[in-house]
Amino acid sequence: MVAAPVLEELREVCQPQAKLASRNGEHWAGRIYMRRVSLRTTRHLVRTPVTPDQLTWTMVVCGIASGAALLIPGLAGAVLAVVLMQLFLLFDCVDGEVARWKGQNSAAGIYVDRLGAYLADAALMIGIGFRAAQNGVGGWLSLGIVTALGVVLLKASTDLVDVARARRGLTVADDEATRPRSAGVANVRRLAAAFKIHRVTNGIEASLVLLAAAIADVFVGGVDVTRWVLIALAAITWLMVPAHLLSILSSSRLR
Fold it and tell me: Taking phi first (over 0 means left), then psi (-120 to 50 degrees means alpha), and beta for anything else, what does residue 197 get?
């Protein structure tokens, strides 16, 4: 059995500071705690035949399963959704770390990784719709699907910047290029960033908000709190869609 690499050596290769320091390149949960967990997981995985692509597909399964877990009524489904979304985040960290250590980066892996992010967040929003509809169909499920569509549009509008730049023969935009040229748009963006309200459209944060709602539902009875959370998520998401598009078009990312 090959000896496990030293953590410091592993960190230097698998967790480059350029990525961790990037405003858009690392989730806050990764910086706070998950990168510590993932590095210790990676330390053992690099000694096995497991490939980065296999880990990425595991991430995708965990993300979709997080939304499916919400079909389980009561607190149990909400807890399971959070656990699966945390596993999604773990494998999202681990697949890249293993890829860097083994030198097995691939375009297919990057593609599946991004696809997994779309599917996980959308699945969670649809799952909230099912839960709000009490595992039935109708308006609440439709609202969940509409919210999922908005979340997908938010992610797509960001990813399409790289597509547009690549087709124009430009390099990936840095953090400086994301700053709006308009002072008014910049001020609105700073205000939104101060309250961090946009983060609830991400599946990781949304699963935690939903767990809090599920706990409240236990005391209140029914799913009214979950329904109000879904309404809030839908409103925030669809307020962000045009705002995010305006932010992109008013920045230097497409120039």
Answer: alpha
Contact yes or no for 241/154 (Cβ under 8 A) = yes
- DSSP annotation string for 104-164: ---HHHHHHHHHHHHHHHHHHHHHHHHHHTTSS-SHHHHHHHHHHHHHHHHHHHHHHHHHH
Residues 207-217: tens digit of each pLDDT: 999 999 999 99
Between 254 and 192, whose confidence is greater?
A: 254
Residue 130: CA atoms inside 13 Å, Cβ hemisphere, count? Answer: 18
* Inter-residue contact 71 to 32 (CB < 8 Å): no
What is the three-class DSSP state of 12?
Answer: helix
State in words which class domain 7-249 has. mainly alpha
Q: Let me know the angle formed at the C-alpha of 62 by 5 and 91, rounded to the nearest 5 degrees.
A: 20
Place of tokens 């748009």: 185
Hey, what are 7's tokens? 């953590």
Taking the model in full, what pTM does it have?
A: 0.86
pLDDT tens by residue, 240-249: 999 888 888 8
